Amino acid sequence: MNQALPVVNRQRNRACRLAVVVGAMIIQGGLLLGPTAAIQNENQAEKEANLKGQIFGGLFNRWTFDQQNADEFPIDFSQLSIGEESTGVWVIGSDAAAPSPPNMLKAASSCRNGSCYRMLVANKLQYEYPDVSVRLRFPTEGGVGQGGIVIGLTGAKQFYAAVVDLAAKHLKVIRVLDGQVAVLGQTAITPKVVDWHSLRIQRNTIISKDFIETFFDGELLLSIQDQSLGLGQVGLVVGGNSSLHFDSLHAVPLFSQRPLSAPAAY
User: Taking a C-beta distance cutoff of 8 angstroms, is the pair 125, 56 a contact?
Assistant: First the structure.
């Protein structure tokens, strides 16, 4: 018995030392993390909390324009424009063949200047890293005009936009900064033989570098690095002398380069 006591004492001492070490490694939530891991966890939690705080009105937002009557202006949206003084026309229209029947959104712009843009912006929503998609079509075969999606908007003179021109068969991403329009990237497109096309734009970040990716008819066509604009509103845009139809507008935030929307949304 007496010879066994030192062994028991040593075991007790080791257990006490282990308890002290474990106690020093316990952080809130009961996780066992070393000091470095604890700091990384705290930084990640803070980043996600900041991003969540930048979103107003919910994470997932979808507008099908089906809850209103024809010829009404879409509720919870505002109009902005840059270029000529006239504003665009945005009204609900009936279409049983729309991607989300029975309604869709009709947009028109009659300005002669190719660099004028008419925006329809969702109210009370702001995203830093948005993922936005929409379905669009020209109302007549071979119709002229251009339109698409705006993100990062902080007013009529500051925003990004993905603009498609089906007649000219090209897609471009523009940045409007202090009212000056710059084309960040442009590429040719081969539209699918369908009535309604899909357009999607997302702004993301990797290792402190922000980039904008644009998809048309499900294919990634442009990836552009730019950090000029950040947190802002999202919406739709038409430019020049245009007439387009829109339906099924979706907007969600991106967290850690991962869209929180279900794939079926696109």
Answer: yes
Residues of the domain holding 248: 61-265
Cα→Cα distances 67→74, 104, 158, 196, Å: 9, 10, 31, 21
In the sheet that holds 146-155, the strands lie side by side as: 77-82, 117-122, 233-239, 146-155, 158-165, 170-177, 180-188
Q: What is the pLDDT of residue 75?
A: 95
**Is 212 found in the same domain as 120?**
yes
Q: Please tell me the pTM assigned to this model.
A: 0.74
Q: What is the pLDDT of residues 60-73, one digit of tens each?
A: 899 999 999 999 99
User: How many C-beta neighbours within 10 Å does residue 259 have?
Assistant: 18
CA of 207: how far to CAs of 179, 184, 256, 257, in Å?
29, 21, 11, 11
Give dist(CA 93, CA 115) in Å, integer.
27
Q: Are residues 24 and 151 in the same domain?
A: no
Question: In the block, which residue shows the tokens 């830093």?
Answer: 128
Structure tokens at 21: 């070490």
Q: Is 169 in the same domain as 225? A: yes
Of the candidates 73, 52, 75, which has an alpha carbon nearest to the alpha carbon of residue 63?
A: 75
| pLDDT tens digits, 119-129 | 999 998 899 99
Same domain, 30 and 79: no
Phi, psi of 195 (to 5 degrees): -75, -45
